[in-house]
Amino acid sequence: MRREEKVRRIFADLRRRYGPSFRDDPGTVLAKVTSATEDPFRVLISTILSQRTRDEKTEEASATLFAKYATPQAIADAPVADLVERIRPVGFYRQKAEQIRKVSRIILDQHRGRVPDTYDELVALPQVGPKTANCVLVYGYGQPAIPVDVHVAVISRRLGLAPPDADEEAVERSLARVVPRRLWLQLNERFVRFGKEVCRTNFPRCTVCNFTSFCSYYRAMRRTTRRAP
Question: What's 3-24+146-220's CATH class?
């Protein structure tokens, strides 16, 4: 099956599962932030907190943090010790407390208190790589981009939308070539939800997946099962 046909079938199915827009039924922490606040700064900080952390822990830490410190000025002026305590549920919370304080200060000093809305300016910020920058563009500013986290990468490789050995940046390039730009805004939210509910990284639920007819992972598992004694 051609990759373009795979994309059509995948997005049609995910649209039926999760609706036409993540704003209508937000299922991830970033989509919830967007729907609730429309605040690029909160999207940026939540994304930094989410690095190597489960969504539920990110949501818990973000809520506790923003209850007291919700602006660049507030976080830049906050005692690091208090930031540490408020974001303790996330991984590497001490490092992240220092980084969100530093990011907030740079936004104040170099960007007049406004989160940058270009990729190059975003990746120049501390603790901001390609995925985080693209998350801010998508969830913070509604700009078409493709944030690639572990769910997006795993699903794309399994379904043949990216090479099996592609790293996250290569997955992004592959998806940008095959997925129409009009679908980029929904890609991350839909793939992440599908990755949590069905195409799990360690234990995929292939029996409830509609993509087994063209899934490379599923075909490989079937061959292995048939060869087993």
Answer: mainly alpha
- Indicate whether 227 pLDDT > 70: no
Query: How is residue 223 written in tokens?
Result: 């061959």
Alpha-carbon distances of 208 from 139, 153, 190, 204, 205, rounded to whole Å:
29, 20, 16, 9, 6
CA 58 distance to own-chain centroid: 12
Q: Are 138 and 180 in contact (CB under 8 A)?
A: no
Burial of 224 (0-12, 13-18, 19+ CB in 10 A): exposed
- Residue given tokens 């995910």 in the structure block: 14
- Exposure class string for 23-45: b at 16+ Cβ within 10 A, else e: eeebbbbbbbbbeeeebbbbbbb
pLDDT of residue 22: 83
User: Has this prediction a pTM greater than 0.85?
Assistant: yes
Superfamily of domain 29-129: Hypothetical protein; domain 2 (1.10.340.30)
**Where are the domains positioned within the chain?**
3-24+146-220, 29-129
Residues belonging to the chain: 229
Question: Which residue do the tokens 């998508």 mark?
Answer: 138
